[in-house]
Amino acid sequence: MFRAISIIKKKEFYSNYNFLIYYLQRIPLIGKLFKNKAYNITVADDLLFIISTIWHFIKKIFSKLLFYGIFFGIYFINLRKILNDFGKENGYKNLENLQNGDVLFYLISLSLFLGVFAYISHFYENTKENYLYIKQMKMKPREYHLSLFFYDAIIFILTFTIANKILFLIFRINIDVLRILYFVIFGYSLRYLAAVIFLKFNFKSKPFMKNLNIVSWICAAIVFIASIAIIFFIKKLIDFSVLYDVKFGILGILIFVISTYLALRRDNIEEVSYRFLNYKELSEVNVKEINKKNYSLSEKKMSKDEKDFSKYSGIEYINKIFFYRTLGVLKKKLIIQGIIKCVVLIGLAVGVYFASASNDEKIIKDAPKLLPLVIFAAGYLLFNADFFIKYCFANMDYSLLKYSFYRRKDFLMKSVKIRMIQLLKLQSVVFLVLIASITSVAISLKFSAYNLIMCYIYAIVSLLFFTLHYLFAYYIIQPFNKDIEAKNPLYSMLTWFIYMISYISIIFGSANQYVAWGLLAFCIIYVILGFVGIKYLAVKRFKLR
Q1: pTM listed for this prediction
Q2: Which of the chain's ends, N or C, has fewer CB atoms near its CB within 10 Å?
Q3: Measured distance CA(311)–CA(425) in Å, rounded
Q4: Tell me: the pLDDT tens digits for 334-360?
Q5: How far apart are CA 408 and CA 535, in angstroms?
Q6: Contact 102, 80 (CB under 8 A)
Q7: Taking a C-beta distance cutoff of 8 angstroms, is the pair 287, 128 a contact?
Q8: Residues 317, 318, 319, 324: is their CA dihedral positive or negative?
Q9: pLDDT single digits (tens) 403-427
Q10: Closest CA to 415 of 318, 310, 524
């Protein structure tokens, strides 16, 4: 088992190393200093295992500090203000005197239990890279997955304990590190037990596991909302401190022992993992085709109806026929995502309506400043066009990029225009629901006409910005190879950079309106530069990888 863990960590080390070298080579001038060298994994290397484990350990601590420190420590700081105001209005001393650290302690403790629901099947997730790697190294799949169980458990328990201790010190919560360790062992043991119980279900079909994941995330969301709502009924925070005790640490160890025994007795661990990979398809087709199946369509699914497109020519003619024949299938693939987005938007609007009944002056005062920025950041999820561009690449561009005429400057500009219009049509329903939700929130919180118009402007800007962002990134970078894998890291990094700008603007923009206006200016400049980039760079960059 130690050999399996060593090989796994060595693989991760070389993957990260090669990615770093690949990225550094793309830097002008400096990139020439880095040799084009990629290492192959052959046998386990104890030194690399130690280096990779230390790096993984530090990265986990840093990521947890970043996530909990920003997400809980700053963004959810508003929860304390809401509870304080609620306590003052109703005379509840427990809520009136809450400090930032109290709420942080509550949310961090709660998050460990939420993970029990959110990651039921996390232990068995698989990818084609892992599948090929196991085959290449001649490892037993059962040994591979069991090794990951134990390794991840140890890393999680240690890093979560250390990260929480640091956060508690920052927020002046005096609690012994051993007590934190006891709680983490107990909380994670429940997650581990849930993963083992998960093995007892029937896994004859992949949709079953997909549906189970959806249900588990819904359960996690319900628990989170209920844990916040219950505060207003019991008039105080749930006391998680009783779980930070040696008795629960011992109980957690017993649960670990029992779970490990049950896991070792089960003989379907690799079967469950293969189901995530869709092993049946893997045995029938080439591994490289698996990713393409998510975006490709068969001839029988395309529309056979005839329509006259003789008034169009060139790239317009090709795109018109393509979207006419395939748009129905594309809509079916996106309809579930659209329904979920609309339900969430409607749910938030309804929640704000009921919350506004308290007439909290602070919420009414801060909401007009914060909501436009939240709307813009939400566009990252609401108007994500990643699937659309991969769909176009797999079913049209990949075949036509072999011809030079397809990369003509005038053709590219027309193609961007056509696809932008198609994307806006596909996203129109979600956009209209967003506008309706904004209107509902504005009425509930008594926005002025100016603030309502600003929200509408940010919604429109968000729609256009994220729609064009994905098209710009696709045409200027074109990161995909024939297997629809993003080989250029700039594509992912640029999208992540845009998301971070959106997120940071929420934190600072609510207190400084110059940030909000600066964000609008950034969007306008970005769109202009995007069209310039397509005009002058896409001719050289838009090609097969």
Answers
A1: 0.52
A2: N
A3: 22
A4: 787 788 888 888 888 887 777 676 666
A5: 10
A6: yes
A7: yes
A8: positive
A9: 777 778 778 888 888 888 888 888 8
A10: 318
